[in-house]
Every structure is written in structure tokens, then in C-alpha cells.
């Protein structure tokens, strides 16, 4: 008998069985991976590596002692309020002197120029949330760019909340505690919703985490390039370093 | 010839692939989590507004600041609060009221505080009335609202009650505002027993022995203070009645008569006597003066301290060569060694909350304060400076430890149990402190 003959006689069912078995085993492994994945590393599942990296570096760069007020000021200057004042003056002035048509045309031209300038500067300002100014405003941002920029915004939140968190060490009694607070932030930077995803069980600890978020708010307005109307983040507070 | 096989295999494979596709997680935008690993501040920020006089009179302005300052100091010494200076206040006290709704919480949260105390006072004859409120300015809530009445010459008594109420509300326990610390004050080789309030104020002299004095020990009911004095040349044991100030000599055996700690019922006292040859530990019944020996070894056994439940005793013995801390049952049975680190560990003091023992140990050629769990785990060094730190004693709430330092001619210091917030209670000759229970 040839190999093909062998194959033809018995192979049909045995190959099928093999494929089925292989399929079953593969799917079993996948199911196990999915089922056991969160168990073995619960903290990683929802954690974007891009964010955590930029968080650490931002925290090191940002002076911690200068506190929330400095951060607030720095960020408050970002929305372009001043250029608009510049724009108003030239608009008001020509209305007082409206005699010669020549002058009017020249003025219009200059106003137009000014407006363009203002618009340009506005665009430049808007595209400068914290660090990078190299992003072009035209066209769609890539996902990596967006993630990177979100990371910068998150780093600001992280720093503000952390710098507001006050809790005497005695009140955790050396225990390692964790509480997770969920915050929904409106475009204006105000908090729309604030709730516990997980309580630590120690009421002083839980209270202090909620307070830290409340004291840090309102947050900086969401930068223009954030597409969402509301941003939701979770903040995990740990007492691990309190342990002594 | 292969045709009958392939379609079936194809179907199987595509079914399998479809299955895999179903298993693949959907690309959902995951929620981002920020991790914050430790608080930026280990104290609650609190502001104390000047108290408002209920009746304008001479000196009322000064009193209104004075009350706020004193309350601020009491809160500060607890180690739980960062009291914000009034220079930072934004609120105009002439426009703002004391009740919720009559002032803006924003004026206070803007200066970084979480809590605010506002109060008023009224002097009527010899009486002082204080009414005070504790606000949570972040949540915009009243946490404590209370009135206190007392002697106008002793406003600190009312302020301590208020401070205690604030501490209960924010930390769950009332603190040590009604406790004193006894210690030995040496000057020119002679010493006497003194006591001060928890914050170092109101110092009182308790003896006039003008001799060497050792190891004062408060009874847990706060009525007595045992100590050893060389007043009559021999180290004899004395007990001071705190209320009547009467001092009685209790034991004057030949050799040392050294006071140890009291039993939880304040009726028995652990003592170290050398009447039988070497130093051994005895339990003294303070009503009958009968003593019973509980250690029997050829080595020195000294410095006994009762556990808060009265079931066990910690003591120091050099039975293994160097002085180390041992534990035994209250009847002297079941002796086991507690400390193994270092070659000199002594002066054990049992936390009133149980479980943990403070002691002084040699580290780097200096005595330092340590704490350790009663099972010998979690050894922790609390002091690190170059003065010898000795004789730890716990506060009744178990949150602080008082100890003495040989630096600067002898000082009495207090720290939080994690070694932070060290403050000086007494300069110039203090030694051998003992923290009282809560005194009525």
C-alpha cells in the first residue's frame, strides 16, 4: 500500500480527530490564559504602560513642594485668554475714526492681519498642553500621540492629587491599605462624579483619599485635543509607604 | 482522492479559527488608573480662627488670640496636625460669622486647610464659657459643636477638653491631654521627682529628697507613684500618694529596692530586690507589704514590666551573658528570651495597647530606643541621634513614647511611636520618665 492509500483509508477520521483535539487544547489554553490572567496580575490589566512611564518621569521633574497653586497657575495660563483682549482693541478703535475710506481699508487689512496672528497664536497655545509643541494641529493625531498627551494630562492630575493628600501615619496602624476612587472630569476640569470603586475599610484612609481629590479640583480644563466630553479615571491610593 | 478529506478539515479549521476569534478580547478602551503611593503630608492641616468675644471688655482682644494660640499648640503637640498660621488667613473676621452659612468655606480651603475651628467666649464673673465648632471645610460640614464652662483663670482646662474632642472626632481617640509625665530632675548631683503636663507645661515638684532617685512608676489608676530613693543612703522603695502628696517608705531591705511596674489593678508592684544575694524579681502586695519572689537564677534579673493584661512580665536578665529582655508568665513560669539583636538591651516597657514592647538597646556604641513585637518580630529602631536615649515609657493611648536623652545634661523627649515628631518636654537634667494614665 502507498502512503496515500493509508491516508485515504484511515487518515480522514484521524486527521479530523487530531485537528479537533488540537483545537480543543488550544482553546483550553486560551480559556485558561484569559481566566487566570487577571488573577496572577490584577494590577496590570487596566494599566497602560505608556501612562505609567510618563507619570514617573513627570513626577520627578515637577517640583513637589511648590504644590498645587503653582501647577494651577501654570495651567490656567494655557487657555488663550490674553490674545482675545489684543483683538478687541483694534476692533474698537477704528469705529471711532470712520472718515476716510482709504484708512478704513488699511485698517481692515491690519485687523485681518491681527486676527490671523491671534488665531495662529491661539492654535499654538492650544497645542501646548505641557511639554511637546511639535505636534502638528493639522490632520488627525495618531493614537500613540494621543496616549502620550493624555499621559501628560494625567501626570498633572497625579501631581495635584498627590500633593493634596494628608493622612497621619498613626491612623493606618502600619497596615497596607488600598482605596480606589473613580473620577469623571468634565471638559471644564470640574468633577462630574466622584465615587469609590474600592474602599480600604479604614475610614480615615478612605476619607483622606476622597478629600485629596476634592481639594485638588477643579482640575485644569481638558485640552482641546482630547476628543471625549468627559474623561474618567481611577485613582489608586496606597498606604504601603506609610508602613514603618 | 483527497477531496473528501479537505472540506471537512477546512470546516473544522475555520470553525476553530472562528472560535479563537470569539475568544479574543474586544479592543475596549481600558480605564486608566493613577497610582499614588503615599500621602504628601502626614499631618492634617487645620486652622484655628481667633475666638470671638461674646462681651467686649478690656483684654478681650488678647484673650481671643490667646485662646486660639493655646488650642493650636495643644493640637500641634499631638503630632496629628499642621496648624496653619493666622498670617495665611483670608477671611475677614469682621464680616464672617461663626455658624455654617455665615462664612465661606472657600476662604479656608483656599489656604490649604481641611479643618477649621471657630469659637466664641464669654466671661461672666469668675466663669468662662467657650462655644466652639469644628468644620470640615472640604466637605462643608460641622463635625463638632460643643460648649465648655470653667474657671476664667484656667482657660487651658477648657481648651484641653476641646482639643480632646477634636482629636476624638478626627482620629478616633482622645489623646493625652489629661496626662502627666513624672521624671527625675538632677541638679548638682542631687535629684528630685517632678511632673509636667503632656506638653511640658505646669511643672510640679513632687519630692524634696535631694538625693539620687530612680525609676518613678505611675500606678495604672493614677493615684500612686512608686520610686526608689537614696534619701537614707540605701536605695529604698517609696510610694507617693498623688492626691495627698504623702510619701511612704515601703521597703528598705539591705541592697537595692528598685521599683518596677504596677499590676493592671494597681494593687501589686513588681520590684527588684537584692536581699537574697543577687538581684531577683518579686511581686509586692502594696496593701500587706508581703513580697513573693518569682525569678530564681544565679544571674541578675531586673527591670520588670507587666503586660497590660497582667498575664506576663517582661524583664532584663544577663543569664545568657549579656543583658537581654526576657518574657515570663506572671507567676514566673515559661521564661523565654525576646531580644537577640545587640549585646545590651534593657528597660522594657509594655505598650498599653499590648503586643509591642519598647526598650533601650545598644546600637553603634549608643543607647537607642527600639520597639519589638511580643513574639520577637518587627524590631524597629526609633532614635538615631548621638545622645544616649534611655528609659522609654508609653503614653496611655499607645501613640507616643517618652524617653530621656543624656545630651544637653539630660532631657525628656516625646515622640510618636513611629519615631517621628520628636519634641522636648524638659531640658537641663531630666531622666527616667514615666507617663501617667489618664488623670481625672
Looking at CATH, the homologous superfamily of the largest domain in chain B is: TolB, C-terminal domain
CA-to-CA gap between the ends of chain A?
79 Å
Helix content of chain A: 55-70%
**Helix segment count of chain B?**
4
The helix-and-strand class of chain B reads mainly beta
Give the helix tally of chain A. 7
Main beta sheet strand tally, sense and closure of chain B:
6 strands, mixed
Give start-end ranges of low-pLDDT stretches of chain A: 1-11, 37-98, 122-139
Q: How much strand of chain B?
A: 35-45%
Oligomer kind: heterodimer
Mean pLDDT of chain B: 91
Q: Radius of gyration of chain A from the CA trace? A: 29 Å
Could you walk me through the main structural features you see in this protein, from its secondary elements to its overall organization?
The complex is a heterodimer of chains A (244) and B (440). In chain A, helix 2 packs across helix 6 (143-162). By secondary structure, chain A is mostly helical. In chain A, 56% of the residues lie in helices and 11% in strands. The longest helix of chain A has 38 residues, at 3-40. In chain A, strand 1 and strand 2 (191-198) form a beta hairpin. Chain A is flat, with a radius of gyration of 29 Å. Chain A is built from seven helices and three strands. In chain A, strands 2-1-3 form a three-stranded antiparallel β-sheet, with helices on one face. Chain A has helices at residues 3-40, 49-61, 67-76, 82-96, 101-126, 143-162, 203-216, and strands at 178-186, 191-198, 230-238. With 440 residues, chain B is mainly beta. Chain B has two domains: 12-171, TolB, N-terminal domain (Rossmann fold, 3-Layer(aba) Sandwich), CATH 3.40.50.10070; 180-435, Neuraminidase (6 Propeller). Chain B contains four helices and 31 strands. Chain B has helices at residues 5-23, 60-77, 105-109, 155-171; strands spanning 32-36, 44-48, 52-53, 81-83, 115-124, 127-136, 141-151, 180-187, 190-197, 204-205, 213-218, 224-229, 236-241, 247-251, 257-262, 268-273, 280-285, 291-293, 301-306, 312-317, 324-329, 336-337, 345-350, 356-363, 366-373, 380-381, 389-394, 400-405, 411-416, 423-426, 430-435. In chain B, the strands form seven sheets. In chain B, strands 2, 3, 4, 5, 6 and 7 form a six-stranded mixed β-sheet that branches. In chain B, a hairpin with a 2-residue loop joins strand 24 and strand 25. Chain B is flat. The termini of chain B are far apart. The mean pLDDT of chain B is 91. Classes of the chains: A mainly alpha (244), B mainly beta (440). At the A-B interface, helix 1, helix 2, helix 6, helix 7 and strand 3 of A face helix 1 and strand 1 of B. Strand 3 of chain A pairs parallel with strand 1 (32-36) of chain B.
